[in-house]
Design a protein that fits this description.
Length: 445
């Protein structure tokens, strides 16, 4: 593993070496189609060029995904310039544009989330299973120091995984163990110009400040030692994730209506840290959230549950926590559900459901059933089906409406369905939370 920048001439990454790096991230299909995040900078351009050669040798294909965040006046022109440069090199590329207004705070984090969202959606829409990023060892060390400043625990200090499985794709970082200088040398050998984003030199961003301190400091841990620290933390994280998955398998039952029943009497016997992490996974899954709740909130909930002072219930991270028979019921908090969205094509609704609608008449929207509407539906809903669902869950079920007309009277969220009526529209509703209850463990190549 090469982690330091030597004084001798820096060698570029050869196709043979890159083939070995990719082999560690497999398996891949016989003729792999991959996507590569490409900003036009030296790191992502090196990856795009190497990835294109690799895919061609396997009879596959590469698409470079260029995201125009619209954060700077010249960003659109830069995206088109990167597109042209890639096409000249024989790399297929597309530009994805971020919608919405300006980002006024937490710019880098929100831009990153928008970028990931656009690229993962493109991959899902085009059946691409592998999305590659050009992160290198300096990025990993910066991530470690940034999270240390913010007081992260083992999960945060393990840095970025070389392999991460998301809902519909695998996120791969084949260059994570290599120094940035080798990526620059690779681009130079290809003779390709790159784009330099001025935000990478803006010291108001924490990551830039940390990067400068690393390059300017003559004391403190070396980059190889810091990188090795993330590897040790990653080993600990993998063991923790195994323990959390085990206890969730024994104590938690997820229902496709979007709620879970938790055997708290068994979970409370687990070690405190494992218990907190299990609760965090449940809240992220049922609440449809991108991130788990903060430690302090989890600790407060744990104290309430452990002391038997839940009373009429609590809310946390968009979830309701209630006693239900001998277990805990955790379901979506109806008041936290987003407004109605148009029923058009495939929609990710509330971070919990994937809803595919075809042939619906104009004016149809997807929204929660809601307490008020539930009370007025009467016989439109199949009583036998909905009675099987705890009352606290029913208002949060997804339904299709046209004005005040309920278009999915037989659906209670119990399973994947297809509905046809005289209007010949079709609906398929699947519980597919943004964060599943458990995911692939932290993985090393």
């Amino acid at each position: 593993m090469q982690l330091s920048e030597a004084s001798s001439p820096v060698k570029s990454i050869t196709p043979h070496e890159f083939d070995g790096l990719m082999a560690c991230l497999g398996p891949f299909e016989k003729h792999p189609d991959i996507a590569i995040a490409c900003s036009g900078g030296p790191d992502s351009m090196a990856l795009a060029l190497l990835g294109n050669t690799w895919a061609a040798s396997k009879g596959g294909s590469v698409t470079a995904l260029i995201v125009d965040h619209g954060l700077r006046r010249e960003s659109g022109e830069e995206a088109q310039l990167v597109l042209q440069r890639l096409n000249v090199c024989g790399v297929q590329a597309v530009v994805l544009e971020r919608g919405g207004g300006s980002i006024l705070n937490d710019i880098q984090a929100k831009a990153r989330d928008a970028r990931y969202g656009l690229m993962t959606k493109w991959c899902a829409d085009h059946g691409v299973l592998h999305l590659l990023f050009g992160h290198h060892c300096m990025d990993q060390v910066e991530t470690l120091l940034l999270r240390m400043e913010r007081g992260s625990g083992v999960y945060g200090l393990s840095g970025m995984a070389e392999i991460r499985e998301a809902a519909s794709i695998r996120i791969l970082r084949p260059l994570l163990s290599l120094p940035k200088a080798r990526l620059r040398a690779t681009v130079n050998d290809f003779g390709v110009d790159v784009v330099n984003d001025p935000s990478n030199d803006n010291s108001k961003f924490d990551r830039v400040r940390i990067r400068r301190s690393l390059t300017e400091s003559k004391s403190g841990p070396s980059i190889p030692k810091l990188y090795a620290m993330t590897a040790r933390m990653g080993t600990s994280r993998a063991a923790l994730e195994d323990a959390v998955a085990d206890v969730l398998a024994r104590t938690c039952e997820i229902f496709p209506e979007g709620y879970c029943l938790l055997d708290w009497d068994t979970l409370v016997t687990a070690p405190l840290d494992i218990r907190h992490r299990a609760l965090a996974r449940i809240m992220a899954c049922i609440g449809g959230n991108l991130y788990t709740p903060r430690y302090k909130s989890l600790r407060n909930l744990d104290d309430i549950l452990a002391t038997g002072s839940l009373g009429g219930g609590r809310t946390l991270a968009g979830c309701r926590i209630l006693r239900w028979k001998s277990k805990l019921l955790i379901c979506r908090e109806p008041s936290a559900i987003q407004n109605a969205v148009k029923a058009n094509g495939t929609v990710s609704w509330d971070g919990r459901y994937r809803i595919k609608v075809s042939g619906a008449p104009d004016g149809v929207v997807i929204c929660k059933l809601g307490t008020a509407r539930l009370a007025t539906c009467g016989g439109l809903l199949e009583t036998a089906l909905i009675q099987k669902i705890p009352a606290a869950v029913r208002p949060s079920l997804p339904t299709l409406w046209r004005g005040e007309q309920l278009l999915t009277p037989h659906f209670t969220g119990s399973k994947d369905i297809e509905i046809e009526n005289s209007s010949d529209y079709r609906v398929q509703i699947t519980f597919a939370p943004r964060n599943p209850l458990t995911s692939a463990r932290f993985t090393f190549a």
